[in-house]
TrEMBL record:
Secretion signal, residue range per the UniProt entry: 1-16
Record region (Disordered): 343-368
Ranges annotated as spanning the membrane: none
Record organism: Penicillium cinerascens
Record domain FAD/NAD(P)-binding: where: 24-167
Biased composition (Basic and acidic residues): 343-360
SUPFAM superfamilies: FAD/NAD(P)-binding domain
Protein name: FAD/NAD(P)-binding domain-containing protein
One Pfam family it belongs to: Pyr_redox_2
Gene Ontology MF: a single term: oxidoreductase activity
InterPro entries hit by this protein: FAD/NAD-bd_sf, FAD/NAD-binding_dom, Ferredoxin-NADP_redctase_2
Length: 387
């Protein structure tokens, strides 16, 4: 019995290149808008797929999601729930609410992977999509985390409009204040920048390196600077209760306290902190990273064949829901065509030396009809306060 199986698989190997036999065509890690969009894309062409979601969503703290057309003001959980419900009608689509612990590439003519979850269960798939997201690295300042996404926010497009024309604060190092002002000044005019001790020669030099006339510009926008060290944020009014939905206004109110002197009252704050990968998988898998993001080409391919990076976690500099959906959809298209190309190759070609995986990727790119990689590289901008 064993001999027979071994004999036939040897025959298959010598006769033609073979498509790996796996549990699923695609495994998607991440149930945010990026992963759900990738799952939708592969499901619509009947690729079998399993999506893992351990329920750590970046926008979990926010009241409502904005700037997602057709869903302006929808709570993120409602949005994801509707997506799951709609995708569930495709019987090739599957979901698991568990954490993926490891992903290891397997040998073969074409890419395939062994995936293990935190219950020890194992799965195999031909392609991997990482839509594992970022999380915000907030300092432990009392009152900050509790108010994040609820009056204290990082993205003008997400939460700015509901706090327009209100006494406003920017919390950032001195060199990042002007960038924030240029994004928010159409919404707020009474702005104080809280620079938390960074108004000093080092940061003044950084600000000047970014923009010679930063000080003049801040004056022109009526921005004053308070350089005291911040000790806490105290909520004195909750915009979830004090809101005018007809006018799209939320009236949060805070006292910002300092290590010395009197606190200052502000309705809302734009803050600027770093982010990090939500999952350790990109590091564990040894993927090429750039500034803490998974390096991807315009096809959303990482530097490991068969692995795609989408959404906030990838390197293309945009971190918002429309980008997450775009990148997930784009990966789905490349994945489907790449697998189809592998399948047609296995149908027609005899084994003749090495098969170049890069060549196949290139062919899939050409079949789809565009190769934007050069422009993509140029467009990879990094900056703070990106929507
Ligand atoms: C407070 C706040 C408000 C925001 N508001 C808006 C807004 O109004 N409009 C907008 O466009 N954008 C908004 N954003 C940005 C938006 O949240 C992100 O751009 C978006 O969530 C990115 O989607 P994603 O799918 O890449 O990642 P996420 O939504 O963060 O999803 C990551 C997924 O990966 C899963 N995951 C990670 N690791 C594993 C693992 N090992 N195993 C299994 N699952 C795993 C997580 O559980 C989760 O399902 C906001 C962000 C914040 C912080
Ligand atoms: C998995 O999580 C989703 C989203 O939170 C939820 O709707 C669903 O009921 C969960 N499924 C299981 C089997 O727990
Ligand atoms: C203020 O600066 C200190 C010292 O650099 C830092 O530890 C703290 O997290 C900063 N506070 C805020 C609210 O950014
Ligand atoms: C300019 O800023 C000051 C101090 O923050 C504020 O009192 C004043 O209302 C602002 N002016 C306008 C036109 O918003
Ligand atoms: C970012 O995440 C990686 C992987 O979990 C970790 O090794 C690293 O220390 C984190 N960096 C910061 C600044 O938190
Ligand atoms: C991807 O890039 C990383 C970092 O440069 C490198 O360590 C790794 O070997 C590369 N992987 C492949 C498959 O080339």
């Amino acid at each position: 019995m064993f001999m027979k199986t071994a004999f036939f698989s040897l025959l298959a190997l010598t006769a033609a290149v073979s498509v790996p036999q796996t549990d699923y065509d695609v495994i998607v890690v991440g149930g945010g808008p990026a992963g759900l969009s990738a799952l939708s894309g592969v499901s619509r062409v009947r690729r079998t797929a399993l999506l893992f979601d351990n329920q750590k969503y970046r926008n979990a703290p926010t009241r409502e999601m904005h700037d997602v057309i057709g869903n302006d003001g929808t709570p993120p959980a409602v949005f994801r729930g509707l997506a799951r419900e709609q995708i569930s009608k495709y019987d090739t689509a599957h979901f698991k609410n568990v954490t993926v612990e490891s992903i290891v590439p397997l040998d073969g003519d074409f890419s395939s992977f062994a995936v293990t979850d935190d219950t020890g269960e194992k799965y195999t798939a031909r392609k991997i999509v990482l839509g594992t997201g970022l999380h915000d690295l907030l300092p432990p300042t009392p009152g900050l985390r509790e108010a994040f996404g609820k009056g204290i926010f990082w993205c003008p497009w997400c939460d700015g409009y509901e706090h327009r024309d209100q006494p406003f604060g920017i919390v950032a190092t001195l060199d990042n204040v002007l960038g924030a002002v240029l994004e928010i000044h159409t919404l707020n005019s009474d702005i104080i920048a809280f620079t938390n001790g960074t108004r000093n020669p080092e940061y003044e030099a950084k600000a000047t390196a970014k923009s010679q006339d930063w000080e003049k510009q801040l004056k022109a926008w009526n921005v004053t600077i308070d350089n005291r060290m911040i000790s806490s944020f105290q909520r004195i009014q909750d915009g979830a209760k004090h809101r005018d939905d007809k006018e799209d206004k939320q009236y949060d109110k805070f006292l910002i306290h300092f290590t010395e002197g009197k606190p200052v009252e502000r309705n809302a704050f734009l803050v600027d902190y770093l982010t990090n990968q939500t999952s350790t998988l990109p590091y564990q898998m040894g993927l090429e990273m750039v500034d803490g993001k998974i390096k991807v080409a315009s096809s959303m391919r990482t530097n490991e064949t068969g692995v795609f990076g989408i959404g906030d976690a990838n390197s293309d500099g945009a971190t918002n829901v429309p980008h997450a959906m775009f990148s997930g959809k784009r990966a789905a298209v490349y994945i489907h065509v790449e697998m189809s190309r592998e399948e047609s190759k296995s149908k027609i070609s005899k084994r003749e030396g090495e098969i170049s995986r890069r060549e196949l990727e290139e062919e899939a790119n050409n079949a789809i009809g565009d190769n934007l990689d050069r422009e993509w590289e140029r467009a990879q901008i990094q900056g703070s306060f990106q929507g």
